[in-house]
Amino acid sequence: VKRHSFPTRRSSDLALVEFGVPEADARDYSVVGCVEWGVPYRSFPAAGAGFISLPAVLDETLHDPDLRAIESPDMDRIWREFRARLVDRVNEAILGNEAIEQAHARWRPTPLLSLCVRGCIEAGQDVTAGGAQYDSSGIQGVGLADVADSLSAIEQLVIEERVLDLDALVSACDADFDGSEGEALRRRILDKVPKYGQDRGRPEWWAARVVQAFTELVAAHDNSRGGRYAPGLWSMTTHVGFGARLGALPSGRKAKRPLANGASPSNGSDARGPTASLLAASRVASKRIANGLALNETLDREFLR
């Protein structure tokens, strides 16, 4: 099996069933607000409980002095370091959200809403205290395309082609690709390295691996209301705020620019049309994504002619 090939998936897998909802209720789902799922009158999905910037986790990883000092790092080492930091960030997000949810249950109950949700009257509990029939808390991964494109660039330019070493690439990012050499490197990344959303293999493979790790880590946690944490891939406007606080990335993205939204390609990368970006997003599909995902398609005039 090639490194960047994909396993066969079953289309019958239902994410809500994976999270303990009987199939009949899972098929009766409704969209809560944007793309997140819930069972009408039976569930209390705290869908927007938390958001994690995946590229910020990678940026932290690449700035580890020990990793940068390795003369010839391999992708397995980089991946292990990234995943270890992702574990810490997920745990931090859930620990913070648990404090918020417990405070809501104690100080901000919602009795009117509880009257509308099955299970609350029977259990004598407010929805904030776990009275709903189905409970979940959603944690979103933000900037999927940016981290996939960055890992692809590292693998191609640093590991395979040996254009430069990892420390030099991180230094170029820290300088926001300033100067003629920095801009030449950025142009090479943008022009020569495949991007997520083009369905060319490598970046989609990395995106799928990131999603697998992220969803596995989030879904392993239970919340204080007796439900589970549900992973999602949507960002509302957090991709803009997170991007404003982040430096340049190995993907060629400049500092302070918005990150990719949801499961969408980064801005300008979906140059092979909507079919390619739809196929790319399908590569990251996982039955653990029980909090929904957003894929925004863009069409320009040239494509429509």
Q: What is the overall shape?
A: elongated
Q: What is the distance, rounded to the nearest whole angstrom, between the alpha carbons of the first and last residues?
A: 39 Å
The percentage of residues in β strands lies in 5-15%
The percentage helix is 40-55%
Strand order, largest beta sheet: 3-4-5
The major beta sheet can be summarized as: 3 strands, parallel
Q: What are the segments in which pLDDT stays under 50 over at least 5 consecutive residues?
A: none
Question: Based on helices, strands and strand pairing, what is the structural class?
Answer: mainly alpha
According to DSSP, the number of beta strands is: 5
Number of helices: 14
- H and E string: HHEEEHHHHHEHHHHEHHH
The radius of gyration computed from the alpha-carbon positions, rounded to a whole number of angstroms, is 21 Å
* Average pLDDT for all residues: 93
Give a structural overview.
The protein is mainly α and 305 residues long. The protein contains 14 helices and five strands. The strands form two sheets. Strands 3-4-5 form a three-stranded parallel sheet. Strands 1-2 form a two-stranded antiparallel ribbon. The longest helix is centred in the N-terminal third of the chain and has 33 residues, at 75-107. The chain starts with 14 loop residues before the first helix and ends with a helix. The model has no long low-confidence stretch (mean pLDDT 93).
